[in-house]
Structures are given as C-alpha cells and as structure tokens.
Amino acid sequence: MEQIHEDVERVLFSEAQLKARVEELGAAIAADYAGRALLLVGILKGSFIFLADLCRAIRLPCAVDFMAVSSYGSGSRSSGRVNITKDLSQDIAGKDVLIVEDILDSGNTLFYLTQVLRMRGPASLRVCTLLDKPERREKDIRADYRGFPIPDAFVVGYGLDYAERYRSLPYVGILKSEIYSRP
Ligand code: IMP
Ligand code: MG
Q1: Averaged over 128-140, what is the pLDDT?
Q2: Is 53 annotated as catalytic?
Q3: If you placed Cys at 101, which of 31, 52, 82, 129 could pair as Cys (CB 3.0 to 4.6 Å)?
Q4: What's this model's pTM, rounded to 2 decimal places?
C-alpha cells in the first residue's frame, strides 16, 4: 500500500481507479469524435494531469490548448466572479472544442467559460470534467463527459490543489477539514 499524505482524510479514487475511468472516458470521446479534428482545451492549472492522461486515452489525433481563469484565490470556495488570466493561443472558429476541467463545483467557472467560447463560433463545444459535485451547483451547467460524481467535500490530488499544494498526489482524496479551516 502506498503511504497516504497526512493531510488527507481518506482516498476517494486510487491511482488505478482513476486510470481505468480515464481510459473509459477516452474511449467514449474517441467514438464520438471519430473523423473530426478535436481540440482539447485544458483549464489551468487543475486539469493538467487529467488532460495529460486523457489525451493519451483518446486514440485520435487531437490538438491541445490551455486557458487559465481565476475565481478561487487560495480558498476552498468559489467567488462567483471569473477572470480569464490566460487565453487560448488560437482561433477556435469552426473547430470541435472539448473543454477539460478538473472539477465542476458551483458551475460558475464553466458557465462563464462556455458562454465566452461559444461566442467565438466553434463547430461544437462540449465539456469533460473528471469530478462533479452536483449538490453544490449554482449555475445551470452540466458536463457532457464526467469521470465521477462526488459528495460535497474538498478534494485534492491528481492536479487538484489547496493553496497550490497536493497537486502531485497520484490519487484523489478528501482533505482534512482542519487544513482549510485553520485561521
Ligand atoms: P466552480 O466555478 O465553483 O465550479 O469551481 C471550479 C473550480 O474550483 C475548479 O476548477 C477547481 O479549481 C476549484 N475547486 C472546486 N472544488 C474543488 C475541490 O474540492 N478541490 C480543489 N479545487 C476545487
Ligand atoms: Mg480548476
């Protein structure tokens, strides 16, 4: 057994479970986009590990680009205000775009981003999220592809952070509440 980080309450998804689910998502995406030119748009920074694994599980040629948004600061709750801090490096008009996100929580980030990207005239625009906390949704948005629904808990690992920590944990785990409730 691998050693669990002392700040992690419990592991929700092991490295093996994540790998198996990412393979399934990749296969579903490859089936849907066969014969098309897919552009994966990773939302920095949380999606970078998921995107790296997902693009290799989608056995089709695909291009990759990134956007970064700020809405969270270093806290554990979304503010509802979203800023684009890094935009795409290409025009997406006429392209089949799949947004790749780490987690869909209040929905504020993806609600805003899908509106912004849709105005740029892509051929299609869909969303793939590794994790989804449906209980916390404030905006009417759902993912077209979803790894796992999870309960309302703050999770870290596999790209997800708390105050820039824990991203490199190979599993997804629930963070001990004393870590983020500390003054
Ligand atoms: P939303 O705008 O509330 O849907 O929040 C989406 C963003 O908040 C995600 O891309 C994450 O960066 C962050 N986030 C939401 N929940 C968690 C969590 O449990 N752990 C780590 N980051 C989270
Ligand atoms: Mg994020």
Answers
A1: 96
A2: no
A3: 129
A4: 0.94
State the burial class of residue 134 (Cβ atoms within 10 Å of its Cβ: 0-12, 13-18, 19+).
middle
The bound ligand whose nearest atom lies closest to the alpha carbon of 164 is 1
**38-44/96-104 β-pairing:** parallel
Q: What angle do CA 15, 20, 26 make, to 5 degrees?
A: 120
Q: Which whole number is the average pLDDT over 75-90?
A: 79
* Side chain identity at residue 111, one-letter code: F
Cβ–Cβ under 8 Å, residues 35 and 60: no
User: What's the CA-to-centroid distance between 51 and ligand 2, angstroms?
Assistant: 12
pLDDT of residue 80: 64
Please list the helix, strand and coil fractions of the chain in percent, rounded to the nearest 5, in that order: 25, 30, 40
Which residue in 53, 96, 102, 105 is the catalytic one? 105
Whether the per-residue pLDDT at 114 is higher than 60: the answer is yes
Residues in the chain: 183
